[in-house]
Write a structure and sequence with these properties.
alpha+beta, about 20% strand
Length: about 140
């Protein structure tokens, strides 16, 4: 009988949902406050549901590569519990940004999450968001 919180019970063919499940599992297992996946422009791709201000955290990811771009008053840059993992998938640079967690476990957690993200991106299809109903459509 599977454990109640067994991650394999939560599956989705939708890329965004599958990534959210992966990031949530990784964050919970590591004790992180949150985990975010960002693209090379710092745009949010996915986040664990527990993450507060995920867009701001996503924007921080690429800035780590060029510290001169960081503003001196950047709250995330002043924290010592922020971990960033940069990796490439299918020719695109992506960033995992984690907040909190046990210091000695952060690198392993981000590596595992990266593998999960890559597996999901290889095996799922992007489902476009549902169309927004327009009042002009009925006119």
């Amino acid at each position: 009988m599977p454990r109640k919180n067994e991650r394999r019970c939560l599956r989705s063919d939708d890329t965004r949902t599958a990534l959210a499940y992966q990031l949530a599992f990784s964050a919970v297992e590591s004790g992180m406050e949150g985990l975010v996946l960002a693209d090379d422009q710092g745009l949010l791709v996915a986040s664990s549901p527990s993450t507060r201000r995920p867009e701001e955290i996503a924007a921080y990811g690429p800035l780590v590569l060029d510290p001169e771009l960081l503003q001196p008053d950047c709250e995330l840059a002043q924290r010592d519990d922020v971990s960033v993992q940069c990796f490439e998938h299918d020719g695109s640079r992506l960033f995992l940004v984690g907040l909190g967690g046990i210091v000695s476990h952060r690198a392993l957690v981000l590596t595992r999450a990266m593998r999960g993200v890559c597996r999901i991106l290889r095996r799922t299809t992007c489902v476009p968001p549902p169309p927004i109903a327009s009042s002009l459509a009925s006119a």
